[in-house]
Amino acid sequence: MSAAGKRAYFTLVQNEPWVIGALVLGHSLHKSKTAATLVCQTGPEVSDESRERLAEVYDVIEPAQEYQFPESSFNKFADIPERLAFSFRRLNAWRRTEFERITYLDSDVVVLKNIDALFDIPGVAAPREFDFRVWKRGETYTDFFNGGLVTFTPSRALFERFAETLATQWVYLGASEQHLVNVVCCGDWFRIPDRYHVQVGARQHAHFSECPARVRTLHFSKISKPWDERYRGRKSLWPSWYRFSRMWMEWLRDYEAEYSHRISPRVFWWESADAVDGALAGADGRTTADRNRAAHTRARRIRQTPTKLAEIAVFKGAFQKISELGRLIALLRRRKLRTVVEIGTLRGGTLWLWCQLATENARIVSIDLPAKSAAGRRQQGNLKKHAIASQRLDFIRNDSQKEVTRAQLLRLLDGDAIDFLFIDGDHRYEAVRRDFQLYSPLLRPGGIVAFHDILQPPRFPDNQVELFWGELKKDYRTKELVDPADERGWGQWGGIGVVYIR
């Protein structure tokens, strides 16, 4: 094998939708005149026809072997989000010692200019990751680099350290193997310049769309892929996403012309005249005009008194005392709510309220268990209509107590801190305590957390919020919104507790 042949680019293709990305990546590497070997590893869902096309572009096509996850009391393979579990197979490239240096690239990367210079950097060469932090038992862990473009020297000893680390200490698995590689390799890391790895979904890199000549690779790592069916990113990132996608499409069309393969529609949906309106309409499918009308209605509502807004929220399904909820509304009106997270939505009365109180471009996330009936699923589906203007309303239907749920939220927040967190889910002591421990570190300094049911109702002994509330009052500045006169013949119940995060 020649000296150049001892260097290799690796990529991974899990299924058919990602084949188009891998073909563009491989073609762009060839056009950059790289002398390295191109290796594409595929999953069982990739068809024989797609493998044949990939073989025209890559030097080696091989199955992506499963990673042998070690027995560990600290980490379980089940902790990896299902959609990212396949990506853990990327670790196997670290033991491929037949190559002197390997650069791993995700298949949603396109290479605009030759990057072979990365092979000459010693140690681990990788780009920085933006706003990625992991919290565990009060400690903060920060990832240093993005796992979608990494150059390294294969080593069996280093490969074995991955298993040793998984077996002996906790590692955050919500981003597949990325945090593990950071933990093991952070002491030997060279940070490559941003222009070598422009992240299309990072707001810090949006400016590169105005100066494409500086860009060496594009990575659609934090946002919709050009081949996706719709845009799922922020409204503010749409212009740069569109320009970056046009750059990616040029390489796609060049591949199709050279190999005489049509692997894409003649016109992508985002090239049409209505693309902007459709992209920014949001998950509920409404047009911008519809959402603007909703915004005008919201403007009229927001001028209502806190008590009136609380009455509307209760009518829409909120299960709070109007007097207590009204006081919380008055408190929230004095704040700029750009990011709101609710744990425990049920009928959606309070979710509707947060949409009215948040800014017009706010991100609002509802976390709740999946509906158990068709009627419940219809009710949850109707909650999408609560968003107004250009708000982004997302739903996580999973147990808030699970790490995977927190990982889903982190991906949705995309580096943003929470302004207001409302906890009204499982009322048992351990559950409330864990909700606070998992999600309160995601708040910005000065943000607030509100709990419902801080009073112990005599008829509901499983409601143990007041036990944890008593602990919080010792360590945080708090405020109690309580109306003991409104007891509805049930005895003591309700009460809203507010925690101010330092």
Would you write up a description of this structure?
The chain is of the alpha/beta class and 502 residues long. It has 2 domains: 4-280, Alpha-Beta Complex (Spore Coat Polysaccharide Biosynthesis Protein SpsA, Chain A); 288-500, Rossmann fold, CATH 3.40.50. It has 14 helices and 19 strands. It has a 7-stranded mixed sheet with strand order 15-14-13-16-17-19-18, sandwiched between helices. Helix 1 (19-31) crosses helix 5, helix 3 (156-168) crosses helix 4 (178-185) and helix 8 (306-315) crosses helix 9 (322-332). The protein is elongated. The mean pLDDT is 88.
What's the shape? elongated
In total, the number of strands is 19
Quick check: average pLDDT? 88
Integer tally of domains: 2
- CATH topology of the largest domain, anyone? Spore Coat Polysaccharide Biosynthesis Protein SpsA, Chain A
Largest sheet: 7 strands, mixed
Strand content: 15-25%
Strand order of the largest sheet: 15-14-13-16-17-19-18
CATH top level of the largest domain is Alpha Beta
Over the alpha carbons, how many angstroms does the gyration radius reach?
25 Å
Task: Give the proportion of residues in helices.
Answer: 25-40%
Please give the CATH architecture of the largest domain.
Alpha-Beta Complex
Number of contiguous helices: 14
Given helix and strand content, the structural type is: alpha/beta
From the N-terminal CA to the C-terminal CA, the straight-line distance is 59 Å
